[in-house]
Amino acid sequence: MKLRTKICLVCVAAMLILSQSFSLFMLHLSQKDQLERISKYEYSIFENKVKSLRQYVEGSFDVLSTSGDMKQRIMKDGSKYYLGMEYAVYQDGQEIFNLTPYEYEDTGAESRDTFTEISLDGKYLLIMGRELSLALGEDYDIWHYKDVTDVYNNSRKMFFNGLVAAFLLTGLIAVILVFVIRLVMKPIYNLKESADEIAGGNYGSRIQVKRRDEIGEISENFNRMAGKVEEHIKELADTNERQLQLMGSLAHELKTPMTAIIGYSDILLKMRLSQEEKEKALLYIGSESRRLSRLSAKMLELTGLYKDGEKTIEKKTVHIKTMLETVDSLMTFRLKEKGLSLVITLSDEDLCHVMDEDLITSLLMNLLDNACKASREGGRIEIEAWEKGISVKDEGIGIPEEEISKIEEAFYMVDKSRARASGGSGLGLSLCKKIAELHKARLVIESRYGKGTKVSLFWEEDNG
């Protein structure tokens, strides 16, 4: 059952109960008042008739020397003349006169000098007894009844008429109440609709607040709650996205260093090397393994799974030439796969810069890995370092102009089939952008389709 139906039924029931209770109370008071007025009137009439009867009987007794039978005859004639149809006269329990359809018994003081209300044969009667003592020592009991059934019938009729009127009026009020409740509860229906939309996944649903009462306050609170729910859902979605990105990032970042480690381990297993060459290979394997350990921890923070990512960014002054030589050695096997040559150019042999060496190395290896994928066999890749930045340039297939603005998005790939075939995940440049941001640097991409691509990392003045 809907709320508005419940409210309407409760209100209608309450109105009926209260109105009929009040009606019964008022009818009871009215009936009581009528009976009291009838009692007073009948009592007055009774007194006058008894007084007239007394005068008649005592006068007749004075004139005539009468026997007992004559006295009863005089009383009977006087009662018939002065009392009438609603009276009865008894002497010592013997009926002298009675034109009523009832017989009377003396019930004591409560039946005398006041009306007693009784119900008999479906009728309602007022009964009163009165003792008549004559001067000659004769005592009589006079009874009077008044049929007040019409008073009760009228009360019932008024009650049932009022009940019919109450039902009709309540029905009219119920119709009006339905429209009023619907109007008043419209914001609640809007709340329900918005709640259903949110439950269905539309977390941006909001209620238009037009009222400044309690319902308006509830609507505003609901909107705030919906906003918080939307924020939490977005946070959960972002966390899930970052988790996916983390898995892809780790796989992406592990691939190139693992290629170098596998390559050096294969050389150690399959080729005869001098002691110096063995030590050099083992040093590379150890160095790259440690770098992978550090890099995996930093990838967690770069993907946003931890909020204190910048705390683990360990910046120090790095000799650029040494770092690029390390990158060259790590990419050796990757370059040999396609017969590519790597040319490194420095503006100054002693060029240094403040950075996190692990992350910048990862950035350069990502750029070189992308360059390898884009380059044709036997092609050339150039790394240039100068005071304000580092760039990686290839002579590969290039990027269409309309795609350049999108390639920094996570999981975005210009040519998905080619990228998947070469093991790409669309995460490389997204990570490079994040690393650049952590160093307060800019990543600039220049490309001409069919001619090649150049990606430059420009240092900012205050990145240290």
From TrEMBL:
What catalytic reaction does the record list?
A: ATP + protein L-histidine = ADP + protein N-phospho-L-histidine
Which terms in the GO cellular component ontology are assigned? plasma membrane
Q: EC number(s) on record?
A: 2.7.13.3
Histidine kinase domain location is: 249-463
Q: What is its main location?
A: membrane
Q: How does it sit in the membrane?
A: Multi-pass membrane protein
Q: Which Gene3D superfamilies match?
A: 1.10.287.130, 6.10.340.10, Histidine kinase-like ATPase, C-terminal domain
Top-rank taxon of the source lineage equals Bacteria
Location in the cell: Cell membrane
Give an example GO molecular function. Answer: phosphorelay sensor kinase activity
User: What are the coiled-coil residue ranges?
Assistant: none
Q: Which residues cross the membrane?
A: 158-184
Listed A to Z, the keywords are:
ATP-binding, Cell membrane, Kinase, Membrane, Nucleotide-binding, Phosphoprotein, Transferase, Transmembrane, Transmembrane helix, Two-component regulatory system
The record ties this protein, via PANTHER family, to: SENSOR HISTIDINE KINASE CPXA
Name of the protein in question: histidine kinase
The species is: Blautia producta
For this protein's source organism, the top of the classification is: Bacteria, Bacillati, Bacillota, Clostridia, Lachnospirales
